[in-house]
Inverse folding.
């Protein structure tokens, strides 16, 4: 699995940073194994779901009673259960990916910085020839790389397993879970959780409060994004009657006009959301480094 | 030796914007190659002073110079063992030593670290969390010495060692200074623990440096006198005086020759320390203060 091919964090001398990276990973074996297993299991599940896709599509096809015009009989279509398994599986994965930010937040808040400050092992590292800034850089870079690789792989597999994304089977593109789990925003959420975890851990310096606060912060971030996602790009307004295109994300509706996002707005909305999340990530990371540099020599 | 291992100028540290000063107006100089005892009661600021020297804290005011440079720059050449001996509890001893090797590329002396661990009959496969306090101290010292430090900062290093282990590890430390000229700074609130092995003293009380200098010189600068109660002790500096009926027993810093009829004795290190701690208003004796006090 790509997630387990551990990259060397960027910056610093090659030998020194490699050593720091190793030293950072060693105490986090459990998190590393859990993440590796979770990514592998989800990947295998997605490949299996993809293999069900064709059969599943048969389960939602048009039918006729009695069979006519080349359409299958409705009894035979209803007998196909693959669509339920496939649709259920895909929405399960989408839900898990969309909410990945929350466990990452709890872990990052607790384990990334706060626990090390609470037990003093951070001080151990800082007096072992590693400057606090390099320590934090290594602590952020390794999980960031692993989260990007793992989440990125799963998002791609998820998109591939969704096939043509038939909304009857796998849900509409603008459904919050589907939206997050099919694009780069998913990776950006994980990275924002990581950076917020580091910052809050530095501020609170206690494991449990840091985990709780980071979780809460990311829950708020997730919900605020979901609430205001529709405002991230100008809507299309259609006046008068007429049917909206399939899979239109209706934002406002009155008798005379409808404001909505057509499917083509998927990418602009993804880029806006990803950009905002990466801004949060960058601000939190900068603040964490500033704070650490001000506090230590 | 004229090289300076540790030097502080007007050093102060305050925790929080409204918090009290843990350390203030500290000025001292420690030449390289010394074994220095940092002595003082609990909460006097010993740990803060060591953490500032180790670069774990940034000073609120003043400066501390470590091995001729900024504490952050000196980090690879400084070993530090914190009071609570923080180690990764989930790792085994061998893995912990490997972390030390990873974090000190180019400096790590595996043989020394392993020798210190082996001295305690410890199985390298044993997890840190299964170790006793004393065994953890041993591993922490192995990690600090494994990086071949030029300056070793130890915060209450011997607190949870039994007398046998204390004696053995003290021997290891002394061998280290003898062989490599390592400067050792160790704090303790047990004075007797340090008397035999240290040649330099830093007495910290209430966030200030009360005494600093070579142990011999500090002891020589003080005299315990026993005189009749009405005797005027001026112009000598009185650190502490206690009346015992018609006699007064005082620890003084003689400003010149003492009258021949005064009964004098040389104070022990413990007396010197306790007298200063019992009298917070007594003037400090530090290199900076000495020049004011004794205009030569």
């Amino acid at each position: 699995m790509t997630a387990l091919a551990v990259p060397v964090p960027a910056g610093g001398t090659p030998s020194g940073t490699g050593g720091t990276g190793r030293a950072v990973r060693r105490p986090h074996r459990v998190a590393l194994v859990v993440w590796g297993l979770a990514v592998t299991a989800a990947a295998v599940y997605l490949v299996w779901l993809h293999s069900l896709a064709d059969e599943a599509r048969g389960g939602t096809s048009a039918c006729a009673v009695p069979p006519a015009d080349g359409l299958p009989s409705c009894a035979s279509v209803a007998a196909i259960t693959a669509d339920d398994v496939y649709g259920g599986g895909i929405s399960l994965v989408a839900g898990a990916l969309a909410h990945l930010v929350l466990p990452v937040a709890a872990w990052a808040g607790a384990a990334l910085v706060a626990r090390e400050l609470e037990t003093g092992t951070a001080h151990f590292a800082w007096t072992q020839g590693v400057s606090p800034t390099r320590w934090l850089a290594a602590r952020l870079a390794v999980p960031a790389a692993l989260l990007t690789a793992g989440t990125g792989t799963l998002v791609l597999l998820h998109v591939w397993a969704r096939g043509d994304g038939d909304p009857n089977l796998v849900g509409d593109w603008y459904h919050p879970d589907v939206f997050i789990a099919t694009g780069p925003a998913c990776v950006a959420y994980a990275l924002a959780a990581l950076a917020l975890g580091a910052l809050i851990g530095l501020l609170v310096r206690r494991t449990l409060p840091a985990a709780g606060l980071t979780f809460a912060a990311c829950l708020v971030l997730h919900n605020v994004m979901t609430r205001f996602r529709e405002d991230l790009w100008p809507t299309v307004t259609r006046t008068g009657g007429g049917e909206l295109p399939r899979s239109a994300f209706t934002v406002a509706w009155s008798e005379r006009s409808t404001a909505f996002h057509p499917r083509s707005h998927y990418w602009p909305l993804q880029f806006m959301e990803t950009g905002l999340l990466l801004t949060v990530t960058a601000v939190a990371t900068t603040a964490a480094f500033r704070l650490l540099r001000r506090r230590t020599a | 030796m004229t090289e300076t291992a540790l030097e502080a100028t007007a050093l102060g540290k305050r925790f929080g914007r409204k918090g009290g000063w843990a350390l203030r107006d500290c000025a001292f100089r420690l030449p390289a190659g010394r074994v220095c005892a940092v002595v003082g009661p609990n909460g006097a600021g010993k740990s803060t002073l060591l953490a500032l020297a180790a670069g774990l804290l940034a000073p609120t005011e003043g400066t501390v110079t470590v091995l001729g440079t900024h504490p952050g720059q000196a980090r690879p050449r400084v070993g530090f063992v914190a009071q609570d001996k923080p180690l990764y509890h989930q790792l085994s001893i061998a893995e912990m030593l490997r972390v030390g090797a990873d974090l000190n590329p180019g400096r790590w002396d595996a043989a020394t670290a392993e020798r210190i661990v082996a001295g305690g009959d410890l199985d390298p496969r044993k997890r840190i969390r299964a170790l006793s306090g004393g065994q953890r101290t041993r591993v922490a010292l192995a990690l600090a010495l494994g990086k071949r430090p030029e300056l070793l900062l130890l915060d209450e290093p011997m607190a949870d060692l039994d007398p046998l282990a204390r004696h053995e590890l003290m021997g290891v430390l002394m061998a280290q200074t003898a062989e490599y000229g390592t400067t050792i700074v160790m704090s303790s609130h047990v004075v007797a623990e340090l008397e035999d092995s240290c040649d330099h003293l830093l007495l910290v009380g209430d966030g200030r440096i009360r005494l600093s200098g070579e142990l011999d010189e500090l002891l020589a600068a003080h005299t315990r006198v026993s005189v009749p109660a009405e005797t005027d002790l001026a112009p000598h500096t009185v650190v502490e005086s206690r009346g015992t009926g018609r006699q007064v027993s005082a620890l003084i810093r003689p400003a010149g020759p003492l009258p021949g009829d005064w009964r004098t004795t040389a104070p022990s290190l413990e007396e010197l320390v306790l007298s200063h701690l019992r009298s917070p208003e007594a003037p400090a004796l530090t290199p900076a203060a000495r020049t004011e006090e004794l205009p030569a």
